[in-house]
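Researcher: I need the complex structure. Ligand is coenzyme A. Inputs:
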Amino acid sequence: MKVVYARSLSPADRRAAAELYWLAFGSKLARVLGPTPRALEFIGRVLDPAHVLIARDASGAILGVAGFRTAGGAFVGGGLADLLAVYGRVGGLWRAACLRLLARDMAEERIVVDGLSVRADMRGQGIGTALLEALCVEAQARGCRAVRLDVVEENLRARALYERLGFTVRARRASRFTRWLFDFDGFWVMVRPL
Ligand SMILES: CC(C)(COP(=O)(O)OP(=O)(O)OC[C@H]1O[C@@H](n2cnc3c(N)ncnc32)[C@H](O)[C@@H]1OP(=O)(O)O)[C@@H](O)C(=O)NCCC(=O)NCCS
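Model: Output:
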């Protein structure tokens, strides 16, 4: 199948991109961003087309996304105002407090992978690899010295993929709250120098 890689995410694509993101990360984020309809409303609202690379098939359907974060913004960011708008005053405030646990410093790398997801029926065909390679090219074009990503400890297949692509583990991060709130104990910080 012909796969096209692009930087453009049209307004009509926002829902599909939000669904793909939720497919990959919903199980971790459900307790804080759920229920699913609310989560999709929030992600669709805050999603930034300037911080994502897309894989599409010939008909234009989205097969995969590689969101990223820079000092200038994030694929799925948003702020307190967005949380309050979608979840209400109380719901927005406690969710904002929880999400602060996931806040990441940008340090020197300046690009952090922030949501790599390939449609379930299209995995294992090289799309994730191509999206990550394209992201490294993008990072190089922006003058970055490295690309960073975080992968939860139990995602051994994803970690294996990243190691094959030149990422190495630089640190392990853990918080005693993440198991209960986000269903993981810790994650590996991996970096690929450019
Ligand atoms: C991880 C992911 C983006 C890789 O995309 P992909 O297009 O399947 O990757 P590629 O075809 O380029 O490479 C395949 C490799 O990806 C890794 N991989 C991780 N999870 C996988 C999955 N569910 N299915 C297939 N491959 C997976 C494996 O290392 C695999 O190699 P292997 O078959 O030898 O084990 C994709 O599988 C996915 O969306 N997974 C669910 C969300 C996720 O875990 N995202 C990463 C969060 S850090």
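Model: Summary of the prediction. The pocket of coenzyme A is lined by residues 24, 116-118, 123-129, 151, 155, 157-158, 160-161 (CB under 6 Å).
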